[in-house]
Structure formats: C-alpha cells, structure tokens
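Notebook, bench 3.
Goal today: get a predicted structure for Cyclic nucleotide-binding domain-containing protein from Pseudorhodoferax aquiterrae so we can plan the truncation constructs. The sequence was checked against the plasmid map this morning, with no discrepancies at the termini. Length recorded as 162 residues. Pasting the sequence as submitted so the record is complete.
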Amino acid sequence: MPHPSSPASPWPERAIPAGTVLIREAERSDHLYVLRQGAFDIVRAGVRIVQVREAGAFLGEIAPLLDAPASASVVAATDSLVQVIHPAGAAVRSDPALTLAIAQLLARRLQTVTAYLVDLQQQYANIGTHLALMDQVLARLMEQQPRPPHAPGSERADVPDY
C-alpha cells in the first residue's frame, strides 16, 4: 500500500467542518486520519492539550495500535481536510511504511515528553515539592512493559482487579 502522503494513496479524503468531533474520547473506532489541511484540537478530559496543524500529521493513531478506545477527543478547530484510513488496525498491521511512520511520530513525541520531564526534574530537584519526583516518573516511564490487550483491572497498582 502506498504511504498516505503519496499521490497514489488509496485512502479517501473527507472535508471536516470547524467544530466537528472527528474522534470522541473513550469511544472505539477503527479509523485513522491523516491531516491534509486545517487544524484540530486534541482534548482530554475536557482540557485542550495541543492543536495539530501540520499537514501529514496522524490523528487517532494510538487507538488502532493498542486496540483500545480513543485516549482523547479530536475536534476540528477550522474547516479541515483529512485522509481516512479504514480499517486502521488492518492497515497498520499490513503496511510497514504506515507502521514505521506512526512509530517515528510516537518516538518523537516520547522524546519531547522525556526532555520536558528532565527539564522539570532539573528545575525542581531541590525544591521539596511533588515536582521533585520527576526522577521517579522518568524511571517508571522507561520501565513500561507492554500490557496484554484487554487485560482486566486497573493500570494502577493500588487498585484491585475486579
């Protein structure tokens, strides 16, 4: 399959009016989107995390990779155009170029978040507040092991599995 950014891509484009919820937090979907033009707000628990404006950016890539509900809502901030990859799970499993592009995106995000956490750690290491715990947060982040799909219970160790 051609990569979504190639001219011969088989995936259709869809116009999204401003204000439209493209992906709803906590809902399952087997759609992945590639931003062609416009902008989308990424919103988690009612808080706007970031606005994505870069053409070629993936939207909704985590859910098909983890076979999980969406971790955030994606709302069109402007009239936008996206490319629709469906079924996303199958496309990610069968298209090495698509999988690599998503892996690179996630690696860049992890690199950015880690750099931010290190900066916080350096700023607040000797302050004595909860922000001084960044070394523990970084260690936990680096220790993360894959969780089996559909594992029962909470991700928190202090909450029993029901």
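The helical segments are 62-66, 88-94, 96-124, 134-143. The CA atoms of residues 124 and 130 lie 9 Å apart.
Flagging this for group meeting.
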